[in-house]
Amino acid sequence: MNIFEKIEDRLKNNTKINMFYISIVITILSYLITKDYNVFYIVIEMLCASLTMAIVFITFTKKYKSNSIFNYIGYGFTLLCFINTVHIVLINTIEVGNFESKGTIFVWLANNYLEYMIIIVSTIFTKAKPKVTDLIFVYCLVIFGVALFVIFTLNFQGTTSDYLVVGKNIWKYTAILCFVALLLIHKYKYYIGRSESRYLYTYLLLVFIYEYIVKLYFTFSIQPLVFIYIIKYLAYYFLYRALNEYILFESYSSMYDDLLKVEDRHIQLNKTLNDRLNILKEVKVILSKSEKKYVSLLESISDGIIIFHFDEISYANKASAYFIDISLDDVKDMSLGDTLEKLGLNYSLSSEKFLDESISIEIDGEEKYLDIYMFESEENTKILFIKDVTEKNINYNLKIELQKYLGEENVKNEFYANISHELRTPINLIYTSLQIKELYIQDNNYEAIEKNTVVIKQNCLRLIRTINNFIDANKISENYLKPNYGIYNIVELVENTAQASVRYIEKMKMSLVFDSEKEEIYTICDWEFVQRAVLNLLSNSVKFGKVDGYIYVNIYVNNDKLCISVKNNGPGISSDIKPYLFDRFTKINKSLNRDKEGSGLGLYLCRSLIELQEGELVLISEEEYGNEFLITFPYEEIHIENKDSIYKSFEINDLVEKVDIEFSDIYL
Length: 668
Fold this sequence. Notes:
Helices cover about 65% and strands about 15% of the residues. By secondary structure, it is of the alpha+beta class. The protein folds into 4 domains: about 250 residues, Up-down Bundle (Rhopdopsin 7-helix transmembrane proteins); about 90 residues, Beta-Lactamase, CATH 3.30.450; about 80 residues, Helix Hairpins (Orthogonal Bundle), CATH 1.10.287; about 180 residues, Histidine kinase-like ATPase, C-terminal domain (Heat Shock Protein 90, 2-Layer Sandwich). The strands form 3 sheets. It has a 5-stranded antiparallel beta sheet with strand order 2-1-5-4-3. The protein has a 5-stranded mixed beta sheet with strand order 7-9-10-12-11. Helix 1 packs antiparallel against helix 9. InterPro entries: HATPase_C_sf (IPR036890), HATPase_dom (IPR003594), His_kinase_dom (IPR005467), HisK_dim/P_dom (IPR003661), HisK_dim/P_sf (IPR036097), MASE3 (IPR033425), Sig_transdc_His_kin-like_C (IPR004358).
């Protein structure tokens, strides 16, 4: 027999013997011995009250299905328990044998009313499954009905016979309530349960029999048998037994089921725990193997690896001992501060969470370059990497030297290509022109001889320009070229240079616009350097300008700067060329069959000549709006008393020849 069957047997057998039979026997024996009817009646009522209290206690303390009819009956019996208690108090206050007082009669009537109403309400609730608020509302109505009984009892004036007349009429209604309760139980027995319905039938029939016999006593003064009061106790007992079986027993059954579930859960948890313990053992074995593999891997790495825990070494590979230049056993006894100090780093760095340093130390008589990295992998744990970058640095330096050498070779090759082209082309043209000239002389073709002479002259000037540019570029690189300062009217200097270039500008069908905010602006400069720079900018504007385009030359003072702007509306210089535009041998068109010649030294020389005078040359270019070259000099206003002396120092005799030389690489 399992525990469930033991509980069931104990609840069904022991409860009947101990609670019912023993109490009945004791009550009957007490009456037979004392012959006291009043005491017997009070004892029976107290037993009934104790059963109602037990029913209420079981309902409110034991867990059962929330929509069971016995739960609703238990809630209603709270009121019945109160009425029974009042009934017992009234019995103790009246004279012996005078039970037909008005208080006793109306308490009986209220008790009868509640007994049937509780069953009716509970039956309806079993099907309707009301909310808590509905349950409270309905029982408030029941309490209101009881209150009407109390008020009627306290205010009714009449003899005992009058009370009995009223009681007879009320008994009729209670009989109707009993019939309604039986019909509802029969109608809703599917929701209540068949076995539960049998208990309720028995309870209602016993209560009705008891109340009918008592009614005979009040109506016809027929003295009932003493033991007829046991019927009421028996009715309450059957209801208590039903609650005991369907609530108390089911509560223990639910507890037993919960215990079984807990036990099953415990078994499942134990199984899960054992599985996880087995997995943990396997993981530990795997971790142990992995740890050995990682240790072997770390030992095979040529970089030093040291792990610090609370700034004390917890692991160090063999390579770290080599870099620190002590034995591995001694390394493991060192702290973080000692390790960093051994590497020549400041001890205060041991408090940092991250370290990135490059150092050079001597190991076994050789200079080694090391990169030191340290970071905090987790709280109070730091990892120090020591990487030997000696070979890497050597290779890097060799790479830099190689790139420098290749760059120089490229410059040389480009230089030779440029100088070969710039020298060979005009020489070939001169030589060819001389050969053709002999033929023209034999034919007396003087017009052709004149044209041929122009070609020879232009290429001679081109040779002069190329040689001068190479010589000056070399002087600048060797710091041999120095400015010869003087005070000059920069407006006149630039304007004369621009006007001397007009004949070449007009031949390209371009227009020159010169403007200055002042007619005279005196400054300290090397006039030849300025003239040569302006000529170069004008020749570039002609070379790379567009037909029917414009060249704007503007001179103005902006705060403490003297500005000379040479601007054209030709195609803008590409953004790819801008960073290298002022470098040596930079050409916009590098092909050897270009229609506009040049060595690529012009803008380099131009900027260098300006910078030698503490000036600056910049390009302001937009590909769709042309190019502007802006020359700026530091400016401080100079007051000249004898301007004639300034004019005499300004030589312009060879300006035309310089213009011819500068524009000699433009084929018109």
